[in-house]
């Protein structure tokens, strides 16, 4: 039995997810129990730094890498103290993605794990993606290994976060890939309209779908590429945002919600899934979920709030446990690397 804390910061910058879970390997497979979990909102200054990290100079980015690592360590200490947690075997930290360019053999998640260790005094495992990228993989998605061992009852698992991604078993292999941007775009234009995010999709409901724009979005070449494939903010800056600026905020939200629902349902229908688990912040966007349900015959399963909010942090804790045990935690069938491997730097 291993007690682990998983730390996750998504591209939509909703906050830092902290998940404390217990993992037990039995003859029938891995079992987990979420013991405590919470989302910590970022201070405004730090959120702005993270949001604009891609534009920082190399010196300032390195400074933020350290600063954010110490911040993560301090938040873990508060979490452990507040919840009277007595035994933690390890911390697994995803970090915050700044650059993701696997075709150039690099990806960067900031938040120095050594700083977390210095703050907490606990073993820390971090930088899970870089090794996979060096091995010819996309460095993403990594969550499928958790779907493979912890959520076996579903035909597929879809995460609706900054980007949507899917994981499923095909011909006895775990396949996974990013589908399309979701909250990273919707949040931006909700904020432009004076809201932090589009709660329940209510802003998008006010808009009208721009059919010409919708066709341009759906015609982007990424969607016709074969998997494995992954997305980053660079994709949005190059392919998505240039199409969207200068239009009515509500119409943009309506159109992009329609686009996301179309792309997600296209994948579900292509593989004819029966039962699909949906998690991530986008699951609370009722308008998006309604549109997906209309467009697919797959059963859309929305789990309890704890799994919706903390599935990724839970799985990164699990990925850390596998690395701690020196077991495979990256699936080449999902990332495209030349073999399965055990990845993560241990501090």
TrEMBL record:
Pfam families assigned to the protein according to its UniProt record, in alphabetical order: AnmK (PF03702)
GO-annotated molecular function: kinase activity
InterPro entries for the chain: Anhydro_N_Ac-Mur_kinase, ATPase_NBD
Record flagged with keyword DNA repair: no
Keyword Kinase: yes
SUPFAM superfamilies: Actin-like ATPase domain (SSF53067)
Keywords recorded for this protein, A-Z: Kinase, Transferase
NCBIfam families for the chain: PRK09585.2-3
The protein's name in its UniProt record: Anhydro-N-acetylmuramic acid kinase
């Amino acid at each position: 039995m291993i007690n682990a804390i998983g730390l996750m910061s998504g591209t939509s910058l909703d906050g830092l997810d902290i998940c404390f879970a217990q993992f037990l390997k039995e003859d029938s497979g891995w079992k987990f129990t979420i013991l405590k979990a919470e989302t910590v909102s970022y201070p405004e200054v730090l959120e702005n730094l993270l949001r604009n990290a891609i534009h920082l100079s190399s010196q300032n980015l390195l400074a933020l890498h350290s600063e954010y690592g110490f911040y993560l360590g301090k938040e873990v200490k508060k979490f452990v103290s507040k919840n009277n947690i007595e035994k933690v075997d390890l911390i697994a930290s995803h970090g915050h993605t700044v650059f993701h360019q696997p075709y150039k053999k690099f990806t960067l998640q900031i938040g120095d794990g050594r700083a977390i260790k210095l703050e907490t005094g606990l073993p820390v495992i971090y930088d899970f993606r870089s090794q996979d990228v060096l091995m010819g993989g996309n460095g993403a998605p990594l969550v499928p290994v958790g779907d493979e061992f912890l959520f076996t009852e579903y035909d597929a698992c879809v995460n609706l976060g900054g980007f949507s991604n899917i994981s499923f078993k095909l011909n006895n292999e775990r396949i996974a890939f990013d589908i399309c941007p979701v909250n990273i775009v919707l949040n931006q234009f909700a904020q432009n309209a004076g809201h932090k995010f589009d709660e329940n999709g209510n802003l998008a409901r006010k808009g009208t779908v721009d059919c010409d724009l919708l066709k341009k979005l759906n015609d982007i070449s990424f969607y016709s590429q074969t998997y494995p494939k992954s997305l980053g903010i660079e994709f949005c800056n190059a392919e998505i945002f240039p199409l969207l600026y200068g239009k009515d905020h509500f119409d943009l939200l309506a159109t992009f919600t329609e686009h996301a629902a179309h792309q997600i349902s296209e994948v579900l229908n292509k593989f004819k899934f029966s039962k699909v688990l949906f998690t991530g912040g986008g699951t609370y966007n009722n308008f998006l979920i309604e549109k997906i349900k209309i467009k697919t015959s797959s059963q859309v399963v929305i789990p309890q709030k704890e799994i919706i909010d903390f599935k990724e942090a839970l799985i990164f804790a699990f990925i850390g446990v596998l690395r701690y045990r020196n077991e495979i935690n990256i699936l080449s069938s999902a990332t495209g690397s030349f073999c399965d491997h055990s990845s993560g730097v241990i501090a």
